[in-house]
């Protein structure tokens, strides 16, 4: 069982193996020492990277997801006897694997958050019939773009970590598929899944746990940032505003994954009102307990919600798929009420932060930057001279399997917010770059 989980599909059999470290610990070291991991500090989470020292970036978000996921994984190992049986490679929860998956789950996000992803996908699809998607880009980075001493491409991660990151086990190029894996990497992922005898469309328990801990972080940490920024105002006027409630309801109804929450079974608007009212009431109670100190109240609110969600994560049978499911659990069954509550808090963060008009103005600027960078690089004859030489060298070595449009998308998507703005300023604004700058 260990051999199949610790197999490295990209690594040469002759590679030296350290006897002192577990294979998953080696994966952890490769991830946190990678340039892609470091660049997450310059990529937007909700607010643009550089908006202030307080607000989260993709880096701090990923570390927080990893911390939650590792703690839950350790608890589940202790409390679920069937995990000790190790009956199937996909029905195991190793805390280090879950931590690695959490650290790497946002590697594929381009600069400027969801807006950057949206713009790159639109351009690629419209002009070249290709897709861009952050989860798929994760695997392109981990299995192809990242460089490691002794490897031709990628970080040569173990099968367990690769499948632990694969929360959407589908070929992205399939008709109507919004999330998945690019065809070039899907061949390897599909073969690993076949060797593991994974049921079609099912993720490993480690991938499911990482995904839910990501949701926990979104629904708690992003709201903390929103309160700190004044975008979420902790008073009745804000929480009872009809427009806010309507926008949250519309986000729920327009979500392509809404079927997972059984919204048709309840009055959505009524539940949104109740969750928001309860949230405000809890804030007022903790605010009094914290001697009316807002910063302490924010942290305490966040900590209590993280604990309330994380402590309820457990493993259930999934009879529909003949598999196991990581879920929020109450009395031996999935707690749909708590799951919907978490989704409402996620939508609250979305409509108050992402949909804020000032954020949207900045996103429009981000859209223009990405589009103009694309226009500058997509003509190959011109682009070859203004893209860094090490990137061009990589392209020349692999041009048989690396189309120019995909190469340009890879280059832009690897940029931090600040670097994208720097290059844009050199090309189109008043800033004059220096020939001595190192890109």
Shape: globular
Annotation, overall tally of beta strands? 3
Structural class by SSE content: mainly alpha
| Percent strand | under 5%
Task: Provide the spatial order of strands within the biggest beta sheet.
Answer: 1-2-3
Largest sheet: 3 strands, antiparallel
Helical amount = 55-70%
Provide the residue-averaged pLDDT.
90
**Measured distance between first and last alpha carbons:** 44 Å
- Give me the Rg, rounded: 22 Å
Helix segment count?
21
Write the layout of secondary structure elements.
Elements: H1 2-6, H2 23-32, H3 35-39, H4 58-79, H5 81-85, H6 95-104, H7 113-128, H8 134-145, H9 159-165, H10 183-196, H11 205-228, H12 236-239, H13 242-254, H14 268-289, H15 294-310, E1 313-318, E2 323-330, E3 333-334, H16 336-354, H17 357-377, H18 380-386, H19 389-398, H20 404-413, H21 417-428
Antiparallel strand pairs: 1-2, 2-3
Question: What would a concise description of this structure say?
Answer:
The protein has helices at 2-6, 23-32, 35-39, 58-79, 81-85, 95-104, 113-128, 134-145, 159-165, 183-196, 205-228, 236-239, 242-254, 268-289, 294-310, 336-354, 357-377, 380-386, 389-398, 404-413, 417-428, and strands spanning 313-318, 323-330, 333-334. It is mostly helical and 439 residues long. The protein has a three-stranded antiparallel sheet with strand order 1-2-3.
What this model shows, in words?
Helix 7 crosses helix 17. The longest helix is centred in the middle third of the chain and has 24 residues, at 205-228. It contains 21 helices and 3 strands. It has 439 residues and is mainly alpha-helical. Strands 1-2-3 form a 3-stranded antiparallel beta sheet. The radius of gyration is 22 Å and the shape is globular. The mean pLDDT is 90.
């Amino acid at each position: 069982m260990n051999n199949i989980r610790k197999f490295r599909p990209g690594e040469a059999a002759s590679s030296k193996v350290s006897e002192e470290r577990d294979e998953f610990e080696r994966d952890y070291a490769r991830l946190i020492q990678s340039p892609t991991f470091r660049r997450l500090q310059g990529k937007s989470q909700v607010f643009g990277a550089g908006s202030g020292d307080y607000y989260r970036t993709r880096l701090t978000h990923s570390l927080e997801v990893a911390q939650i996921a590792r703690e839950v994984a350790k608890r589940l190992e202790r409390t679920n006897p069937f995990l000790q049986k190790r009956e199937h490679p996909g029905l195991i929860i190793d805390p280090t694997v879950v931590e690695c998956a959490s650290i790497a789950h946002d590697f594929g996000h381009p600069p400027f958050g969801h807006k950057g992803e949206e713009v790159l996908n639109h351009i690629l699809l419209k002009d070249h019939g290709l897709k861009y998607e952050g989860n798929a880009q994760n695997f392109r980075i981990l299995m192809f773009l990242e460089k490691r001493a002794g490897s031709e491409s990628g970080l040569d991660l173990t099968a367990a970590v690769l499948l632990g990151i694969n929360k959407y086990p589908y070929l992205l190029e399939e008709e109507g598929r919004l999330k998945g894996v690019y065809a070039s990497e899907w061949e390897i992922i599909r073969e690993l899944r076949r060797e593991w005898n994974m049921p079609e469309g099912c993720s490993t328990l480690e991938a499911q746990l990482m995904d839910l801990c990501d949701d926990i972080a979104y629904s708690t940490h992003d709201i903390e940032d929103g309160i700190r920024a004044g975008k979420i105002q902790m008073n009745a006027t804000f929480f009872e505003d009809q427009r806010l409630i309507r926008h949250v309801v519309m986000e729920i109804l327009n979500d392509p994954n809404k079927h997972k929450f059984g919204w048709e079974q309840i009055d959505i608007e009524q539940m949104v009102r109740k969750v928001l009212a309860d949230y405000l009431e809890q804030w007022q109670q903790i605010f009094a307990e914290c001697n009316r100190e807002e910063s302490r109240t924010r942290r305490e609110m966040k900590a209590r919600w993280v604990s309330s969600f994380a402590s309820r994560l457990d493993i259930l049978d999934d009879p529909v798929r003949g598999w196991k499911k990581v879920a929020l659990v109450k009395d031996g069954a999935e707690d749909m009420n708590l799951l919907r509550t978490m989704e409402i808090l996620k939508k609250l963060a979305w409509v108050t932060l992402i949909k804020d008009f000032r954020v949207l103005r900045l996103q429009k600027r981000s859209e223009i930057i990405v589009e103009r960078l694309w226009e500058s690089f997509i003509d190959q004859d011109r682009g070859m001279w203004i893209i860094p030489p090490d990137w061009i060298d990589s392209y020349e070595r692999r041009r048989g399997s690396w189309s120019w449009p995909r190469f340009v998308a890879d280059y832009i998507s690897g940029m931090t917010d600040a670097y994208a703005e720097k290059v844009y300023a050199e090309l189109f604004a008043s800033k004059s770059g220096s020939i001595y700058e190192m890109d």
